[in-house]
Amino acid sequence: MYKKEVEIYADTSNYAVMRHPGRNFPGSLIQGDSLYILCQRADGICNAIKNKEYDQAYEELNELRNMLWDRLSHYKNVLNEHEIDLPFSEIPPSSRTK
User: Fold this and answer.
1) Is residue 61 part of a domain?
2) Which residue, 21, 60, 64, 85, is most buried by CB atoms nearer than 10 A?
């Protein structure tokens, strides 16, 4: 283990946004328990599909999607508050001009 300073843009519980030294953009820190929950939800979706429980799979997948979009929305808001460009384009590839 070693220690380094990081730039912290938001330390909201379970939604920390920080930039690690050497990285161009901040990242979203996922605590171990939150990561475990995301993995468990993905496992539940796989099991439901395997067992052809499609309604259950959809409900689980929709919940996982909502959890991820909530995290991404928070990340985008934090970067916007600090006037930092997003590290990705929100324009779908098919809509970009060439």
Assistant:
1) yes
2) 60
95 found inside a domain = no
Domain count of the chain?
A: 1
Per the model's pLDDT, the better-predicted residue between 14 and 98 turns out to be: 14
Place of tokens 């006037």: 83
Give per-residue burial for 22-48: e unless 16+ CB within 10 Å, then b.
Answer: eeeebeebeeeeeeeeeeebeebbeeb
On whether residue 98 sits in a domain, the answer given is no
Residue 73 and residue 68: Cα distance in Å, rounded? 9
Q: Minimal CA–CA distance to 48: which of 61, 33, 67? A: 61
Average pLDDT over residues 8-27: 94
Cα end-to-end span (Å), the chain: 46
Structural domain harbouring 48: 7-83
